[in-house]
Specification:
The protein is an alpha+beta fold. The protein has three domains: 40 residues; 87 residues, Alpha-Beta Plaits (2-Layer Sandwich), CATH 3.30.70; 76 residues, Threonyl-tRNA Synthetase, Chain A, domain 2. Helix content is 49%, strand content 21%. The longest helix is centred in the last third of the chain and has 24 residues. It is elongated, with a radius of gyration of 29 Å.
Length: 213
């Protein structure tokens, strides 16, 4: 019984040594090598190693506004081709998902609806007051655009952070706020450099102070 127990214990120890050797390699047999190997393979988190912690606000309305600016320019070109007069075409500053056409002749309704249906299907169109028309980005299109902007911002940040050589950075959507990104960079103690790199990404702003340990 004692012999079987010793045999099983020996097998377990041998298996453990094989696994440890596989992880650490020949460095296992020297003190300095073991320490270096452990440091290479075990990465301390922000709470132990210190670093930078940021919460970024993605300016999704800028992306929506850019899309509406494009729609306004397209409308100008199409109405000019159709020889339809208008007073002004522009997005609303406080509602960037809306584009307003002002001073349109009453007999141009079918032309406007045709242009929107054919060239701007992501917008709904409705007649407004004083010979105006209002284009409104469809809810699903608006939500998709905001989601794409957030995901593209995350990828842009990840690409820029890679230039810092940070080990195991955390870059993800922040669940505590709308259109926010959480960034944690263990071991990065140059907040000015981090801020410069992050803010060079379009449509981002620092919503909270930059903390570093």
């Amino acid at each position: 019984m004692q012999k079987n127990l010793l045999l099983k214990t020996g097998i377990i120890v041998a298996i453990l040594l094989i696994f440890v050797y596989g992880m650490l390699g020949p460095k296992l047999f020297s003190g300095a090598g073991l320490k270096a190997s452990l440091l290479d393979r075990i990465h301390l988190g922000l709470d132990l190693k210190g670093g930078s912690h940021l919460i970024l606000q993605v300016m999704v309305n800028d992306a929506v506004g850019a899309q509406s600016d494009h729609a306004a320019e397209l409308l100008k070109d199409e109405l000019q081709k159709a020889k339809v007069n208008y007073a002004d075409i522009a997005k609303l500053d406080n509602q960037p998902e809306k584009v307003v056409i002002k001073g349109v002749p009453l007999d141009a309704s079918s032309t406007i609806r045709g242009i929107v249906n054919d060239r701007l299907p992501e917008y709904d169109v409705a007649a407004g007051p004083d010979n105006s028309w209002v284009l409104t980005m469809k809810p699903q299109q608006l939500a998709d655009l905001k989601d794409r902007t957030l995901e593209q911002s995350i990828e842009a940040i990840r690409t820029r952070v890679d230039s810092l050589g940070v080990s195991e950075p955390l870059i993800q959507k922040n669940g505590l706020g709308d259109n926010q990104i959480l960034v944690q960079l263990p071991g990065v103690d140059d907040p000015g450099r981090v801020k410069e790199i992050i803010q060079s990404t379009a449509r981002l702003e620092l919503r909270e102070a930059l903390d570093h340990g």
